[in-house]
Amino acid sequence: MWRNYHKRRGSCVMLSDSCGRMRSMKSAVFVFLRGEADLPRKIAPQQSLELPAVPKMSRSAVIAVAIFLISHLALLIGLTTPEKFVFDEVHYVPAARQMLAPSMSQPMLNPMHPPLAKELMATSIAAFGDNALGWRYPATLFGALAIVAIYLCGLALFAAQGPAIAAALIAAFNQMVYVQARIAMLDIFALGFGLLAIAAFMHGFRKQRPHAVFALAGALFGLAAACKWSGLFPLGVCIAIVALIRLMQGWRTLFADAKPDDWYRPDLWPDFRAAHVALCFAVLPALAYLASFVPLYGLSLPDLIEAQRRIFADNTTTAIAGHTYMSSWPSWPLLARPVWFLFDKTAEDNVSAIVFLGNPLVLWLALPALAVVLCDVVVARRWDAFLIAAFYFGSWLAWALLPRTLGFIYYYLPAAAVASLALVYVLRREGLPRWLLWAYVGVAAIGFAVMLPISAAFIGTSMQTFNRLMLFSSWI
Question: Rounded to 5 degrees, what are φ and ψ at 190?
Fold first, then answer.
């Protein structure tokens, strides 16, 4: 399958840059929104690659703004119900309140997580008041941004508006984003920044000069980690991808039957040096991450180091005590154990419930789709399948490496969001009718509607309906 091409560099193919050199961050954002694939015109002698029709930047930007506004407004409906703390809001809202005090009181609340998400909550509380709207409003913003980011990922992978919009809709109908975007917890902030960073990386993956978009991705990954350290997982995936490609190039390896859609090419990123890798995926993420601590500690190096030591200690300690809703990482794709964020009896036969579970019609069907994606990575070597698989399995299996045993299904949120891309990838395969993808989007919407009474506290439901939706004993 492989062959060495030492002394045959003349046969290597030089890529032509179809969108020119990007000389500023402004141009990075331009290409990021445009969804351009920037594919080489020629990959081997007598083997040409036709560029797909690329959506115009202006149209892509308008659609992205529309997705954001619609998602944001939908997430705002009934946001203030209930007006009391829900689940882990009891940890994060007091920590945000503490940041608003004229002088920081001691001990610092919730020191086991970085401060950026709590700083954003504090800003919202200052703007909207110390109430349910003030606590939860920033989460709705980042939930909408996460859905937009999936749309941008779809543009990068599929180079077409329809599949990109379908991916965003499936992610929105997955229930997980909806529930997590309406509670004052940290995960949705890390998800929003992280998915935007993944989208930037995907847009740069097939470019000759990915420097600017990779730098943008690195800065966004740093902001994701500044919300929660799990934001480092997709950054680790990017570093692993770059290292693997550079290693194979260093070994002067090439596929014997090179194809236009190969995820690896010996002439990929010819001017992206080791210094650029360090800047994009180490220096910029570190600077963005550390900047979030400045409002709390200033430029005090001992305080910054101590804060990192505390976060590391708290997040790597093996948990001994159990939790009612704890679950292990192998069970998350199966939706074996949900988390009840809220369960209040509002009348004799009515309840107000928020169950973090996920849409079974999305997440269960995503599993065979991911199997197809993996098969295409190995057999067809497709670059789009490779990136979907890398970010799904990297975001999920990273939890298997941590020593702590206390886990929850909402840790699966980033991987579940990426799974929507796998579904679109499979449903738009050659030979399948075009209407099938949109028919599935309708099925996902039906599943979302059925589960909405146990996903939004303001709707409420009867005990009979609640028990009917709890399909398995492990869900109770």
Answer: -65, -35
Element (H, E) at 356: strand 350-356
* Tokens standing for residue 383: 């670059």
pLDDT band at 318 (very low <50, low <70, confident <90, very high): low
Judged by DSSP in three states, 4 sits in strand
Beta pairing, strands 2-4 & 253-255: antiparallel
Q: What is the pLDDT of residues 6-29, one digit of tens each?
A: 333 333 333 333 334 334 444 444
Distant-in-sequence, close-in-space partners of 112: CB < 8 Å, separation ≥ 6 = 310, 311, 314, 315
Looking at residue 299, the DSSP 8-state letter turns out to be T
What is the identity of the amino acid at 164?
A: A
Structure tokens that stand for 335 in this block? 């939706």
Where b means 16+ CB within 10 Å and e means fewer, 383-412 reads bbbbbbbbbbbbbbebbeebeeeebbbbbb
Peptide bond preceding 102: is omega within 30 degrees of 0, i.e. cis?
A: no
What lies within 8 Å, CB to CB, of 358 at 6+ separation is: 174, 175, 176, 335, 338, 409, 412, 416
CA separation for the pair 198, 421 (Å, rounded): 12
Using alpha carbons, select from 168, 162, 129 the residue that is nearest to residue 149: 168
Q: At what angle do helices 413-427 and 383-397 cross, to 10 degrees?
A: 160
Q: Provide CB contacts within 8 A for 85, sequence distance 6+.
A: 93
- Compute the distance between CA of residue 38 and CA of residue 20 in angstroms, rounded to an integer: 9
Q: Which two tokens stand for residue 171?
A: 């992610």
CB-count exposure of residue 204 (10 Å: 0-12, 13-18, 19+):
buried
For residue 222 the two structure tokens come to: 């740093």
Find out whether 139 and 33 touch, Cβ atoms under 8 Å: no
Contact (CB, 8 A) for 13 and 182 = no
DSSP letter at 79 equals T
Threshold 0.85, pTM exceeds: yes
Q: What is the residue whose two structure tokens read 């003349």?
A: 10
Q: Are the CB atoms for 190 and 228 separated by under 8 Å? A: yes
Task: Show the tokens assigned to 212.
Answer: 């600017």
Query: Where do we find the tokens 């770059």?
Result: 242
Measured between alpha carbons, how far is 63 from 94 in angstroms, rounded to an integer? Answer: 37
Q: 203-212, pLDDT tens digit by residue?
A: 999 999 999 9
